[in-house]
């Protein structure tokens, strides 16, 4: 059976990258000393346990015990419900193992995300850029989170699918995927704005045309003729609102997922102050063991922020603003985990796919990403915090 290119190439990138990741993970877990005293997700399977570290404990807890909230303490309400609920639903079909369910879900979702990334990039740019974008994402240094018991893969799948459906003007599909995105992570609500931006563009309104009278005439006609499309798009925020209603009903804390962030030491001082603080720590070397982690997170933040103007020019203001907000919101309190958060800024990988048409750039990105990916995996499986 001959598979179409848009399926074959993403799946090949998935297979090659996971082969590297699983090989590096097994080698790291076998050859390097593992810090004792941590939670063992799957005592019966060292392989599965290797992909369930740090925040995976919260998804497991939600899937098995449900939600709980303790004021001024780290509480699992910080984590949105779609991913752990899917883990709970799938576990009975996999012998009852919630961790195995999370592992399977993450890998399936990532495979689907690569397919949608290919389709969206081909739609916006061309097939060669789509192929490269898929490989750059699959081999990005922290892409092992896509096969770990983390929400990254599900969030990426839903967010790219939302935008692909919106670009094809399949508004019902876009709204349903967007609602799932908004119920998977708090920043999923941004997909509502991105889909609305696409709807406005279809009506002939954009930042470039907003000073023209005809653009507003076209927009008014769009409102009159296509009001039902706006009604459909408006269901996207229900993903977040439904979770807020759940928190209000059970804990009288509709914003509990924000309140509990303070227990992780997050203080909202703004991106500029956070970046300045991180750069100062790097230059003075005051973080000791955390210096290298801070370096990669700060470098990732600055690097993806630097892509924003180029995204504006090549892919449009909607994609550029999406990446900008995706970077600025988490960096308002800390740079920690930024190198993981950038994974879901899919327009950046679309742009890199375009840049990779130059052979030197393509080789540098792939080789650099692959080497760092192997290094990061070996330490992650041994309970060294990466992001």
Textual characterization of the structure:
This protein is an all-alpha fold. It has one domain. It is built from 19 helices and no strands. α1 (5-31) runs parallel beside α6, α1 crosses α19 (359-380) and α5 (98-124) packs antiparallel against α6 (127-138). The chain starts with a helix and ends in a 7-residue tail after the last helix. The model has no long low-confidence stretch (mean pLDDT 91).
Q: Which features would summarize this protein structure in a list?
A:
387 residues; mainly alpha; 19 helices
Secondary structure elements and pairings:
Layout: H1 5-31, H2 46-50, H3 56-65, H4 82-90, H5 98-124, H6 127-138, H7 152-167, H8 171-182, H9 190-202, H10 213-225, H11 227-233, H12 238-251, H13 256-259, H14 271-284, H15 291-314, H16 317-328, H17 338-341, H18 346-355, H19 359-380
What is the gist of this entry?
This protein is mainly alpha-helical. The protein is 66% helix and 0% strand.
Q: Averaged pLDDT, please?
A: 91
Shape: globular
Radius of gyration: 21 Å
| Alpha-beta classification | mainly alpha
> How many domains, in number, for the residues?
1
**Count of DSSP-assigned helices:** 19
Poorly predicted parts: none
Strand content: under 5%
Helicity, as a percent range:
55-70%
């Amino acid at each position: 059976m001959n598979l179409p290119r848009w399926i074959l190439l993403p799946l090949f990138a998935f297979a090659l990258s996971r082969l590297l990741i699983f090989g590096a993970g097994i080698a790291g877990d076998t050859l390097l000393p593992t810090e004792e005293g941590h939670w063992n997700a799957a005592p019966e399977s060292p392989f599965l346990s290797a992909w369930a570290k740090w925040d995976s404990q919260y998804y497991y807890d939600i899937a098995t015990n449900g939600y709980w909230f303790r004021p001024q303490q780290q509480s699992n309400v910080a984590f949105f419900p779609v991913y752990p609920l899917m883990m709970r639903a799938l576990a009975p079909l996999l012998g009852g193992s919630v961790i195995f369910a999370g592992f399977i879900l993450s890998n399936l979702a990532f495979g689907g995300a690569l397919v949608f990334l290919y389709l969206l990039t081909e739609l916006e740019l061309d097939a060669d850029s789509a192929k490269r974008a898929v490989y750059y994402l699959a081999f990005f240094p922290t892409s092992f989170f896509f096969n770990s018991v983390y929400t990254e893969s599900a969030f990426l799948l839903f967010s790219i699918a939302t935008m692909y459906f919106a670009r094809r003007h399949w508004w019902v599909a876009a709204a349903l995927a967007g609602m799932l995105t908004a119920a998977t992570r708090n920043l999923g609500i941004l997909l509502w704005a991105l889909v609305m931006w696409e709807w406005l563009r279809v009506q002939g309104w954009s930042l470039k045309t907003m000073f023209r009278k005809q653009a507003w005439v076209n927009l008014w006609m769009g409102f009159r003729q296509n009001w039902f499309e706006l009604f459909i798009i408006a269901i996207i925020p229900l993903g977040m609102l439904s979770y807020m209603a759940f928190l209000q009903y059970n804990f009288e804390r509709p914003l509990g997922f924000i309140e509990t962030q303070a227990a992780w030491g997050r203080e909202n001082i703004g991106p500029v102050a956070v970046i300045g603080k991180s750069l100062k720590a790097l230059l003075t070397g005051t973080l000791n063991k955390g210096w290298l982690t801070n370096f990669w997170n700060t470098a990732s933040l600055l690097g993806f922020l630097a892509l924003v103007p180029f995204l504006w020019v090549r892919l449009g203001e909607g994609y550029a603003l999406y990446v900008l907000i995706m970077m600025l919101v988490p960096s308002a309190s800390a740079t920690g985990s930024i190198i993981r958060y950038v994974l879901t800024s899919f327009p950046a990988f679309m742009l890199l796919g375009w840049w990779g048409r130059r052979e030197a750039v393509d080789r540098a990105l792939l080789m650099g990403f692959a080497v760092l990916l192997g290094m990061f995996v070996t330490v992650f499986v041994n309970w060294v915090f990466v992001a």
